[in-house]
Amino acid sequence: MQNLKEWYQGMAKDLHPTPPDTRQSAAFHPSYSSQQRGLSSRLPRSILVGLAIALALTCIEGIVWILNPFHLVGSTSHTLPAFLAAIAQNPLWWLVLVIQVITAVLVVWAAVRPLALYRFSRDARRATEHYRTVYTPLPNWPSLYEVMVTYSQQAPDPTVPPHIQEIPLLEMVRNGGLFLVDPQAHLVLLGAPGAGKTTALYLYQFMTLQQRRAMIFGRERIPIFVPLRNYNLFLKTHVSSQDTSLQRDAASLLDYLVTSDLPGMHHLRPYLHKLAEQGRLLLLCDGVHEVDEAYQPTVIDELIDLMSQHRNRVLLTCREVDFVRQPQLALAVEENLVARALIRPLGQEQVRGMVEHYIEGENSERKKRNPGHTAGQIMDMITRTRLSTICTNPLLLLALLNVIDGLGLERGKRLDTRGRLLRAYVSHLIQQTRKQPTWSEHAPTEKDILLLLGEIACAARWSNTPYAIQLHEAAHLLRIGLPTMEDHAAAVQTWLGEHADEMFLSDSQHETYSREEVARVLRFAQNASLIEISPHGILSFRHELISAYMVAEYFMALQASYDTPLQKTRFAGLLAQVMKRQDTTDAFSRWSLPLALWAGLLDELVVYAGRFVEYGGAHPGSALDVLGLSLLCLGVASVPPHIADLPQVVLPPELESMLVEVLRSDEQRIALARLFTRYAEEDAHEIYQSLFALLMVQEIDDLIILLDMEVVPDLLFNRLRAIVDDGAYEGQVKRLVRVTGQLGAGAVPRAAALSRS
To answer: Which of 24-33, 127-136, 246-255, 510-519 has the weakest average pLDDT?
Structure first.
């Protein structure tokens, strides 16, 4: 308890960085007070333990002298008074005792840090194994599925082209020889949500921890997994509300690590600054986009400072769009010869390989009880439905594989949107947890779980902390020690009350929960691995897709209560108002993904697109916002041409009229193109699928050339390749030929490839 209070006192105190001229790095400025605390705690501990060891040795020596086994000291045994008299009369005994004390203290002093590193490696390894067993179906880390990455690195000679190759992720982690400049070089790992970036960092940590002895004795760096969403909470706590510019001397990544509750970090805390100065750290920094927009530029500068020095090693993950948006990061990667790896969407062969690998890895006893489906049956279902586009994401493919045996192939075919697939997966996790003896009779209902977690996820987005929530302040933790689930429940109730007036939360969808009911839901959700709550009370969701899905389910509950036969556009209007709000950070980063998942839960998407248009007709100032929401609905409803079971989406006349009016205005056309891009950047990429329903609108040509030329040409040419020989799409083929002809030089190689196919 005393140690716990010391940790929290360190969190509560102001951080005092050393003067600039004594810092080893701008990113790692050691706190003098932290160093002194580590030294002052280590020295007395070593002396006390050394004294205890010396005393124990003296006692053993006395017992040996008294009993005199094997006649080592003379031919007879001795008595305790004789032993004490010998000590008093012979100064040599005192010299031996002093030497024993000094030796023991020095041995303990030398052994404390290696023991701390050993204990850290033990706790960190447990954390990696926990992640593997809870969040992946892998039987062990070396059996990682084959996910391809595009690996690239600038050569030291600027005249030499970059080194680029396609390799499996596991091979990249294992093979340090890929790095041209230094096997211990930094790395930026890019990929979409669910691509496997976090899993890759845990794999890096596991592989390094396999060399425990080399790590303890300094031949390998110490791998520390750093969730940047938690660092974001630390910054919000330590940066003045009036000073959002985040002066770097106010707080740093190392200061966060010193005060964090990451697995095993309390063992490293006294030595962390020294280890950083010695360049002994491998920092596995996960999720740049999970840092608040106000702090992102300076946090990236801090990471760049680390990359510019070659002591500590940095592995950083972020979405590709974040890498493009932060030019200083891209420039630093090039200037410092930092390697870059992009996790690609799964190809059809990789999907098949993952399906086969998953089925082969299933428990043999489970197979006997329920043989399940073959890889061929599952692949046939995927390729014949819209799942073929969804399952290029590893997380979503694994979600499908988890639920398909329980649902069956026919019901599985209807999981053809991300929203429906995540609904089935979350329901599967809840039902599996219900089967545990602990919850057989007292489990909360699925409705209550989704409502409470949906409220939390919505409120987190309004508070600019959509990825993690700090439930307790440091001063409160000092008073209560390690919080219980009831303490967490009380904190959640208080925190939700602070956001009760925000949109979506002002109209409660349930009776007020008691603290015991909230605690039960949180405990169940944690057991189901839907959420995590750290020892210091940081609440986070299993994955950002799960968090967004909870918001989507909450939207479904709100829609059911808002929309009535007489007022069918109330909820559509609420969503339009939220996207229009200017007093908050970017609405697209908050709501794009939840909206895409919500649309995937709707049964009649085209009908709801019409409701947005109806609301826009009554509120002309919201035309662009409702148009964007309508097109997102059409994109989610879009059907690939090879799927005959579902009808193609037809553009409603009212939506076409509104679209044409917007496209005829240069200013609004540019704004609509920006809207398309922002939705897609924030993982609502389905909006681009709506372009196929818009192709017959002549004015669309001027919009398409304003869209993202890294995405749209491939999208259009792939569609053209799919329908070029199908007479039913003759009109669309002609329009596609015309539109792609206006895409400029970037379309030439694609057109040539199409002509050869």
So the answer is: 24-33
Measure the CA–CA gap between 152 and 341, rounded to whole angstroms. Answer: 6
Q: Which of 277, 309, 344 is the last residue of a domain?
A: 344
Pairing of strands 187-190, 313-318: parallel
260-307 pLDDT per residue, tens: 999 999 999 989 999 999 999 999 999 999 998 888 888 999 998 888
- Give the H or E element holding residue 29: none
Number of domains forming the structure of the chain = 3
Q: Both tokens of residue 57?
A: 């040795």
Residue 115 to residue 650: CA distance in whole angstroms: 68
Same domain, yes or no, for 493 and 593?
no
Q: What is the pLDDT of residue 2?
A: 41
CA distance linking residue 182 with residue 338, whole number of Å:
10
Look up the pTM and report it: 0.87
Nearest to 289 by CA among 157, 421, 161, 192: 192
Q: Are 747 and 740 in contact (CB under 8 A)?
A: yes
Mean pLDDT of 412-429: 96
DSSP 463-490: TT-SS-EE-S-HHHHHHHSS--HHHHHH
Domain termination residue (choose one: 318, 344, 370)? 344
Whether residue 430 contacts residue 453, with contact meaning beta carbons closer than 8 Å, is answered with no
Tens of pLDDT, residue by residue over 3-31, are 434 443 444 343 333 333 333 444 454 44
CA distance 679 to 669: 16
Strand, helix or coil for residue 5: helix
Q: Is 281 helix (H, G, I), strand (E, B) or coil?
A: strand
Three-class secondary structure of residue 531 per DSSP: strand
Q: State which residues form the domain around 502.
A: 443-562
Closest CA to 235 of 302, 143, 178, 172: 302
| Residue 228 and residue 102 in one domain | yes
Among 301, 335, 296, which residue's Cα sits nearest to residue 319? 296
Q: With b meaning 16 or more CB within 10 Å and e meaning fewer, what string describes 724-752?
A: eeeeebeebbebbeebbeebeeebeebbe
Distance of alpha carbon 119 from alpha carbon 222, whole angstroms = 12
Alpha-carbon span 496 to 509, nearest angstrom: 14
The span from the CA of 262 to the CA of 258, in Å, is: 10
Report the C-alpha gap between 222 and 209 in whole angstroms. 8
687 Cβ contact list (under 8 Å, min separation 6): 596, 628, 631, 632, 635, 676, 679, 680
CA distances from 397 to 138, 413, 728 (A): 14, 13, 32
Question: What is the per-residue pLDDT across 589-617, written as a single tens digit (0 to 9) for each?
Answer: 899 999 999 999 999 999 999 999 999 99
Percent of the chain predicted with pLDDT > 90? 52
